[in-house]
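User: Hi! I'm working on a homework problem where we have to compare a predicted structure to a textbook description. Could you give me the structure for the chain below?
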Amino acid sequence: IGTFKNYTCVIGPNGSGKSNLMDAISFVMGIKASHLRTSKLKNLIYNGGLTGSQTSDQQRKAYVKVVFMDKLNEIEFMRTIDQHGSKFKINSKTVKFEEYEKKLKSFGIIPSAKNFLVFQGDVSSIASKNPMELTTLIEHVSGSFAHKKKYEELKREHELAADKLMMEYQKKKNVNQERQKYTAAKKDASQFDKLVKEHTEKQVEYVLWRLYHIEAKIMEYKDIVNQNVSETDELNRQLGKLGKSIGPLKRENAALRASLAGKRAIYTSEKKKVLILESKLNDLTAKMQHLQNRIERTLAKEQQLNQETTQRKEKINNVNKDIEKVQRDLAQLVEEEEQQQNQMTDESKLKQADLEEYQQLKRQAGLAAFTQQSTIEALKGRLETMAAEKRTIQDRLDMAAGEQKEIAGKIKVKKSQIEDVEHRLVETKHALEPINEKYKALDRKKSELISSKADDEVKLEKIRDSIQRARFEEDEESSQQAYNTALENIKRNFNGVYGKLTSLFKTNDEKYNVAVQVAIGNKNAYAIVVDTTETAFEAIQYLKDQRLPELVFIPLDGIRPKKINESLRTISESARLVYDVISVQDPIFDKAIRFVVGNTVLFPTLDEATEICLERQMEYKIRAVTLDGTLINKNGSLVAGLKEVQDSLAVNSKKKKTQSIDDLMQSRDRLMESIRESTIQIIKDETAIKQLESEKTRYESLVTKYTDDLGVLEENLRNLETKGMESVDMRIETDTKRLNDQEEAIEAQDEQIKTIQHEIDDIEKKVYGDFIDRIGYDIREYERMILEKQIVFARKRSEYETVLARLEGEKAFLEGEQELAVTAIADKEDMNKYLDQLERERTRVETNHAAATASLEAAKQAIDIEKNKLKASNVQLNDASRQSTICQDEIKKKLGRHTHATNLIKQWQSKRESIVRQCDLDDIAVPFEQVDERPSKRKSKKKQAVAVNENAMQDDNGIIEFSEFIPAPGKEIESSDSFSPSRKRGRTNVVRIDFRSLPEDYLSVSTQFDYKRIEDIYHKDILTLEQEMEKLAPAVRGSKRLQYAEDKYEQTNRTFDEAREASKETLARFEAEKERRSEKFKKAFNHISENIDKIYKNLTKSTAYVYGGTAVLSLEDNTEPYLAGIKYNVMPPLKRFHYMDQLSGGERTVAALALLFAIHNYRPSPFFVLDEIDAALDFTNVSKVSNYIQVMASQGTCQFIVISLKDQFFSMSDRLVGICKDHASRSSMSLHFDLSQFALPSSSLAVDDVDVDDDDDL
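Assistant: Happy to help. Predicted structure tokens:
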């Protein structure tokens, strides 16, 4: 296609392939497939015109070649494509795409920027580009885009170097500050040494003071251990004596219990036998009564059954006779029918010739009398139908007559059944009356027993409550005694135990007692107030060792009571804080009271408390209590008042024990025995009642059944007498009337048939006349006679068979009734035999029942005897067991005290050893003194001797020996102010701690308060010294680290200098690359910006507005413009400023073309392809654009190839290329037409000068 002129226009109808030319030029210029009208390059190959004989390689190959011609030579660019991809060639030499692209760029063609073509639709997309997309377009055109990757790499490298520089600077700064701090700290080292010495001396004094008081505690608890050992030995001797006496009593008691259990098992077994026999006896009596009633009913019906049996026998005989008569008549009819058939066969024999003649005459007669014969056949058909209806009606009449007889028989049977059911109903009601009376008597007896049992159970419950209360009082006394004992021991063994909380205060008025107790709570009421948490833990351990219940402790130093809310004191005139109604014995207990009652408010009534706490909207939740003891918690839950319970407990506490536990237990046993006997009797009565209920239910169900049956039978009788019989009579009357009507209709039909038959006969006489005369008889009459006889025979046979079937059915029914009657008479004898058998069984059961009752009474007497023996044995055993339990409890208490004291000794010894071990670890030198092992020397200083090692041995005189405290062989002992114990051959050195340095007033500590006070003084002094040392400790450590800080500062400074130089170097390289990228971008932008306004004016000026419009390109960032957007705004002639998206389609197209022409002007290519850029332009704008292209093409610097369908374009071109379809080859073809020979005069439209890059002369 070509050669192209300076202004070539491509035309052709839609779909002819104009855009294929655009694709071909784009393809050969190296544009990627994604920018073409396909996703894969191989889809660009056309194979529609190939035949099947061509090879597959030929089918899938294509190429595009473009030739550039300058003044000197021609250069060919060709791109091929096949199944394996595409290849690039320059002057028929295959090259790589990079070389291919480089060569194109030398001609001003940039494939990535697509500066040589405008695709269809690109104009509208360029007009709608946002600022950043315009920036990207300018980057590709200017070539600055090639610097983007390196720019970003250098930028990241510079940022990393800057971050590293800042990090090294911060390190240098921190190290410098540390160096200055260590320099200043060197001055405080001497003051720190002085404080260390004072701190060590105070620690030694504190350790000696603690060890001294620990030794005093150990000696105190040893005395307690020795005392408990002697008391426990005495109790063990007493327990041994009691154990010897309890053993025989237990064996005797066990034997009596086993014997009583055996007697009770025998009693239970005999009781079951009696109950089983009574049940059998009741069952036999009921069965015999029922059987006697059945026999009586059978005797009453026997005569009637015999009479009915005789009548049925006569009926059966009569039916048999009727059956025999019908069978004889049926056999005679069959015989007559056979004779008639034989006679017909003999008489109807004709010669063969005569027979053939007769058949021919018969066909002739049939044709002659066809109409009459058809009519008579139809009439006979209707006559047969009417006869069938008549027979049906007659059968219904016969059935109705039979139903009349059957209904009459059913009515008789129903009346007989009604009489029988009425008789049974009366008998059943008579049998039910004694059962009801017996049932009521047993029910009254059972109710009395249940009432008596309930009274006994109430009494038993009261006695059990009394026993439980008596035991509770004993347990309460025992628990209270144990509580008091534990409290006394705790007070005696531990300093700082003040006592039970409720004993440390009193209420201002007795009316507040209940409310205060509820506010405190049961748990806190028995709480023990102690001074410290340590005391509480030691007391808890003591309780565990003594095996006593857990108690609540309130340590004054560990609780944090809430502050009193002053606003609650004025919440109501009648309300008061519970805290305000309590008076404490000592102000130190005020903290404990506030801890348990807190801000609980006391109200006089529940209504007032509810109104304030639950209904009034308060800022905070209130815990309240009323005078009657009702508690309202903060979550709104209520605890019922406890005043009644308190009063009841107060009354019960004042009652004297009127009965002993043994008397109450005896009363309990008597009531339990009475309840058990009542239960047995109730069970027996319930068994009998269940049996009676079973019989009663059976008879009542029979009464209900007979009543229901009687109602059903009477209803059936009424239906038979009214609905059944009346319905049958109505049917008989209706069918009789229908039968008469049918007979009249049949007679009329017969007359009509006879009339037509006469006509047929007349026709047949004419046809058969000669034939009848020749054979001697009328064969037609003979055929009709035979047919009539056959019909008569068939009807009679059917009648005989129907009667025979009815008689046989009646016979079968009578025989069945006869068998039932005979069976009923035979059952009477079987019932009499079964009744005799039941009578003998009842006699046997009555004998066994009497024997079992006697055995039951004997077993009951044996149980009473064993009970008395067991009761006496229980009294003896309980007395001995009670004494043994008391003795064991005392031993447990002694053992608990012993264990507790031993554990406390171990604890104090462990504390002592722990203190000495800690002294070794902390390098605290405890002062020792060495003494000879002789007893006389030990005794002289026993008050000052305290063990300082876990291997020390202490004798009764208090001398602490360290015989095993020997250093390992070869190990040297450092010299110090303390004395190191050693073992010499033949003697043992004993070590004592020297307490002489302790102040005298610190040795005597009488209370826990004094101990705590002195300990706090030591802690405070040591803590003060440690705090001062802590302040100076960094200075001391800093003086040692000064040289290290100096070295570190020098190293950090060197690293900082290196990072700074690296940052400068990366910054220089980055700035250079940024400058190159910015220079290229700005060069292109400045050129395009300067020319776009001129181009836009040339495209928009007209005679009405000779200056044209205005176009402006502006940068959002002048420093680095490629990182921001480019704004493109135009102002068409005679219009105010609008944004690009507010312009019309044509205005946007002109603006986009101005931008494209300005870009092309900066980097002109040898040719410029424009694909239907005039789609949105009107006539005027098309003319303006076409004139502009004509003028630019006339300058000869670029070839313009325009694809358009508008004559304004192609009429001004130098050459036309027409594209059309070649249907023969199914492809497109091109036509060329040179318009330069028809050159028009020069256009009146002048184009302003535009800067053009004339580097290439193509």
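For your comparison, note the following. Residues 189-347 form the longest helix (159 residues). The mean pLDDT is 75. Good luck with the assignment!
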